[in-house]
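Self-study notes.
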Amino acid sequence: MIKKYILVVMVFVIFLFSTVILKYGKETIPIEVKQVFKNEVLGSTLVKENFEENELYSIKIYYPKTEYENLNEYMLNSINEVKEGFLEEINKLDKVLNKGKYELNITFNQYEYKSYISFALDVMIDLRGAHPYNYIYTIIYDTNSKSIITVDKLIKNNKDFLNKISQKTYEVLKENENIKEYSDEENLENGLKPIASNFENIIFDKDKMIVFINIYQVAPYVAGNFEIAIPYNEIFEINM
């Protein structure tokens, strides 16, 4: 009798647990996303999905939804620009594919520092060429001022910002093995000149700023992307 009672309780618990998953699963982080993200704990941030697929292309986008509506709007507009650009490129290409589909995949990582929330969007576009194109696009948001922080604003508030970040990234990358093998001094210097367009993709982490250098900026495709961490005390104390 006791065994029968325990079995009934177990079945009820399993049923209840399954019901909760079905009801709330869409508002939590899918398992496959956790495997991609560096940080699994996103606080109040939700992971939203945008999936589209037909015989020609596949779109899989994971993006954050935060408690800040203006940030959400900016984020969604940025992602939609990438998506629209992808679809426009497809329209220019031959619609007959021997195998596979055109693909757009976007995932993201979230970072925090003081009142700043940073997002690094990892974009992969495959137009069935020699290789896919991967790049990082970043967004920084100040929760105090409720505004997007751009590189231009950083330059305005810190006049020596570009010179310092240019110097630090150069010092790190000149010792990188991929740079030594696939690039040269001219490409490195040109790609790291102290101009805003070279350092648009940065984020603020807990104890450091991270600079993302995308493919082709300082080296050919085979060298890949670069991620350079610079402690804040080596650049400046952020005060905005």
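Second protein, same conventions, sequence then structure:
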Amino acid sequence: FDHAAAVDAVYGEVEQGLLEKLKLFTIDTKALDDKETYILRPDLGRKLTDAAKETLLQKCEKNAQVQIIVSNGLSASAINANLENVLLSLQQSLASLNLKMGTPFYIEQGRVGLMDDIGEVLQPEVVVYLIGERPGLVSAESMSAYLCYKPRKETIESDRTVVSNIHKGGIPPAEAGAYLGNLIQKILKYEASGVTLVQREE
């Protein structure tokens, strides 16, 4: 596996044109624009700035059934390669299931735990977090989707459902979107995600 591709993935940028095409506005975390801080201080990537909270309250509706959020995470390449197909097929899937979506947006330097902060601000029923994975042995373009039912400050890691390995050599992006739609429907039905969802389905 190519070390240079991994470095590009982590230090690269998500294409501005892609975000504009998908109509995603951008907010910052407390890790702001410094990659070194982001890598060394995961805690800062889990917190919104006050300005970001203000922006969300202005631009997003509260209490949506499904709130989709996107971040470069540890691979901008993953977002550049997969986001468009995953997002469009997920939006299509949610529309066909008659689920009401909030306004999706992009987060610079976000970590997974940030969904709890966003849950506190916007209070959606389900948050779907599309995020670039740490470049692995197989691909620098792998994206994950984290889903959580009513994420809040007290949410723990085992409350999250994860679908990883979304890329052309793993779960194809367009298929991933449809799969996530069905998963969201289940989360809403059982009012649970993560380990609790598995237990309730049994």
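Instructor comment on the second fold: The longest helix spans residues 76-96.
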